[in-house]
Amino acid sequence: EEDAKKKEEDAKKEKKWFEKYTIRGYAQFRVNEVFDENGPAKAHHVGDSSVGDNQSFLIRRARLILSGDVSEHVSLYFQPDFASNVPGSPDANQFAQIRDLYADVFLDDDKELRFRIGQSKVPYGWENLQSSSNRLPLDRSDSLNTAVRNERDLGIFCYWTPVEVQDTFKYIMDEGLKGSGNYGLFGVGVYNGQGGSFREQNDDLHAVARVAYPFWLNDCQLVEVGMQGYTGQYTVLTSPISPLGVGAAAAPASNPEGIKDERLAWTFIYYPQPIGFQSEWTVGRGPSLNDAQTSIGHSALYGGYAMAMYRQKLEKGELIPFARWNYYQGGYKTERNAPYSKIEELEFGTEWQFSKSLEFVAMYTITDRTNTQAIGSANTPSYEQFDGRLLRFQVQVTY
What we know:
By secondary structure, the protein is mainly beta. The chain has 4 helices and 17 strands. A hairpin with a 3-residue loop joins strand 8 and strand 9 (221-234).
C-alpha cells in the first residue's frame, strides 16, 4: 500500500526541465555526377547546389531537433539547419538557419484540436509535409515544392485530428511506411506567404486549407487521399537579366504589393505494404516572368508526379527500389524573377536502410529542366533548358 502511494506521488511530481525534452536529428551527405549535357543551359537543380560544374561533395542537410511537452497542453518544436545556403553568399555555405520554431497549443485532453503558432510547414502538399529524412527521392517534386519556399512559413494553423486518425498516423510512422506525419484530418491557417526564414515583402497574408484522410482497405492496406488549396499575394524578388539575351541587363518590372498566387492540389498515397504508389497533381495561377522577359505577370501553372515503390525487408534493414515521373510547367515564383519553367524528369533509384541510423540512396535521373538562375551579363540569355543525365548518391545518418 505504501509502495502504491509512493508511485502515485512520484507520478504527480512535475518533471525537471531536462526530462521534458528530447534531442534528435539527421545529416545528409551527397555527391552528384552530371553527364550527357545536351541542352544549351549549364547543369542546375533548384534543390541541390552540388548539381553543376566544379561541384563534388555536399552536406545537404544537418538538422538538430529539440522537442518536448512544456505542459499538458503545450508542446515545443525547434529545428535549425546547419547546412543552409544564405542568399548573397555565393562562395560560402553551411550557415545555421531556423527551419522550424513553433508551439502546439492543445485545446482538449485528447489532443484532437490544436493551434500551431510560429514557423512551421504549411499544410500544402503531402510530399512537402513529409520529412526529408523519410522521402525516397533526394529532392521534392518541383510542382508542389514551388508553392512554398522551404515548405515553411511564419503563421498560425489550426489542426483537427480525431483520436482514431491520430492512431492511424502514428501507426504509419511507427511501421516505417514513409508517412508525412500528423497534420490533421482537417487543417486551416494563415501565414506570411514569402517563405520560411525570408523577410515578408507585403501586407497581405496567405490563407490555406487542407483535408487528408487515411483509411484501411480490407484491413491490410493503408491508403490516404487528400485535397488542399491556398490563396494570397506573392511579391517576387528580382535580379537583372538581359531580356531574351539581347541588350543590357535590367531587373524585370514587378508589382511590389504582390501578384495573385493561388493553387489547388490533390493527393493519393498507397502505402508500401509492400507495393506502394504515391501521386499528387496541382493546378493554379501565379507570378511568372512574361515571354519578353521584361516584367513579371500572372499565368497558369500545372504539374505533378507519380511514383511507384516496393518495400523489401531484409535480415538486417530493408531495400526500397522506386521510380518517379516528375512534371511542372509554370512560373517558378520562389526563384528570382519567377522564370517560366518547363520541367520533366524520370528518376530511378534505390534506398537501402542498413539500420535506423544509417541509409544509402542511389539515383539515376533523366532530366529536361529550365535553369532558373538569373544571369546578369549583357547579351547573355537566362532561363534556357538543361537536358542531361544525373547519377546521384546520398548517405543519411540519423541520430
